[in-house]
Specification:
The protein is α/β, with parallel strands linked by helices. The protein has two domains: 197 residues, Quinone Oxidoreductase, Chain A, domain 1; 137 residues, Rossmann fold, CATH 3.40.50.720. The protein contains eleven helices and 17 strands. The strands form four sheets. Strands 3, 4, 5, 8, 9, 16 and 17 form a seven-stranded mixed sheet that branches. It has a six-stranded parallel sheet with strand order 12-11-10-13-14-15, sandwiched between helices. It is globular and about 60 Å long. Bound molecules: nicotinamide-8-iodo-adenine-dinucleotide and zinc ion (ZN) (2 copies).
């Protein structure tokens, strides 16, 4: 199998953080010896892409500029560098946030590649999936089974993997209560489904039009609307008869993150996933000691987490709650995301 590769393509690029998002003709990149070239068909739009575009995290990790964002890309391998192993032209491949790492440090050695100091990030330090042709490190690119719907699988590549790993980090057992703060967003709507598939009971916190319906469609059991409920910790403690055994924080709200330390059950785990710019998680020390709960961070997942998260999807245990929009509409999608108006995940079609 071989593909004709054009010299130019469409993509969305910006030249400075928060600057104009330009949908235009861009050169098709050439894969390095260790890279595959993917004809990206669809890409999920993660809130991380909006943080990157706004420069929210630039003090922590410098942003590549100019930048083509996107890190939930699904497409077809159309070319590859000379040292690539394990891929064939025509295979389906996924672009993830972690595009590469040194594979040599103590973190990489143990499979904690996302913690590598030399991590290369798609749509942040490496041009990502908001273009029709993107390069990806052959070791980190995700293998997508033949016949998979590429629009539906796209959000699994970041949102799915991340929440699956975060749920593992909470160390729950079947029957435990897990609270998901931000339950009807891109990560939250998948977290609810993974949690249910893993045997947990889900209480979801979110607010706004249609969020309760989406949460219940995803298998959630008890919904709390943060725009209506005055005392969220009390409401979670009541719904779970003593507090959630685990909390997955996927909201983009500093206040909601700190509140989760008030409704976690004794000996439970608060997992931090959402990263509002400059946020602090405030936990009362007396409460944390006397209730002996943990606060843990969770950052995407490794290659095994990716394979396992994709397997849940392939078996139909989780479905992507997607709306498909043209790539050229990315500025409007970011605006709706910033205004908290999206339900589930938007996936962009790179052909439009
Ligand atoms: O590896 C990681 N740690 C990782 C991976 C991927 C994404 C972290 N993230 C981060 C993103 O950078 C972002 O900060 O997770 C966060 C959520 O990403 P997302 O799910 O892609 O965002 P979204 O679709 O906009 O969903 C956010 C939801 O939070 C709700 C919103 O209504 C929305 O449904 N929410 C907000 I904002 N404030 C809330 C509050 N106070 C709230 N829900 C409950 N209480
Ligand atoms: Zn993401
Ligand atoms: Zn490393």
């Amino acid at each position: 199998m071989s593909f004709e590769i054009p010299k130019t393509q469409k993509g969305v690029i910006f030249y400075e953080a928060g600057g104009k998002l330009e949908y235009k003709d861009l050169p098709v990149p050439t894969p390095k010896p260790n890279e595959i070239l993917i004809n990206v068909k669809y890409s999920g739009v993660c809130h991380t892409d909006l943080h990157a575009y706004k420069g929210d995290w630039a003090d922590h990790v410098p942003l590549k500029l100019p930048l083509i964002g996107g890190h939930e890309g699904a497409g077809v391998v159309v070319a590859m560098g000379a040292s690539v192993k394990g891929w064939k032209i025509g295979d389906l491949a996924g672009i993830k946030w972690l595009n590469g790492s040194c594979m040599n440090c103590e973190y990489c050695e143990l499979g904690n590649e996302s913690n590598c100091k030399h991590a290369d990030l798609s749509g942040y330090t490496h041009d990502g999936s908001f273009q029709q042709y993107a390069t990806a490190d052959a070791v980190q690119a995700a293998k997508i089974p033949k016949g998979t719907d590429l629009a539906e699988v796209a959000p699994i590549l970041c949102a799915g993997v991340t929440v699956y790993k975060a749920l593992k980090t909470a160390e729950l057992i079947a029957g435990d209560w897990v609270a998901i703060s931000g339950a009807a967003g891109g990560l939250g709507s998948l977290a609810t489904q993974y949690a249910k598939a893993m045997g947990y009971r889900v209480v979801g916190i979110d607010g706004g039009e249609g969020k309760k319906e989406l949460f219940e469609k995803c298998g959630g059991e008890y919904f709390i609307d943060y725009t209506k409920e005055k005392d969220i910790p009390a409401a979670v403690v009541k719904a779970t008869n003593g507090g959630a055994h685990g909390v997955i924080n996927v909201s983009v709200s500093e206040k909601a993150i700190s509140a989760s330390t008030e409704y976690v059950r004794a000996n439970g785990t608060v997992v931090l996933v959402g990263m509002p710019s400059g946020a602090k998680c405030i936990s009362d020390v007396f409460d944390q000691v006397s209730k002996s709960f943990k606060v843990a961070g969770s950052y995407v997942g490794n290659r095994a987490d990716t394979r396992q998260a994709l397997d849940f999807f392939a078996r139909g245990l989780v479905r992507s709650p997607i709306t498909i929009e043209p790539l050229s509409d990315l500025p409007e999608i970011y605006q709706k995301m910033a205004d908290n108006k999206l339900l589930g995940r938007v996936v962009v079609d790179t052909s439009k």
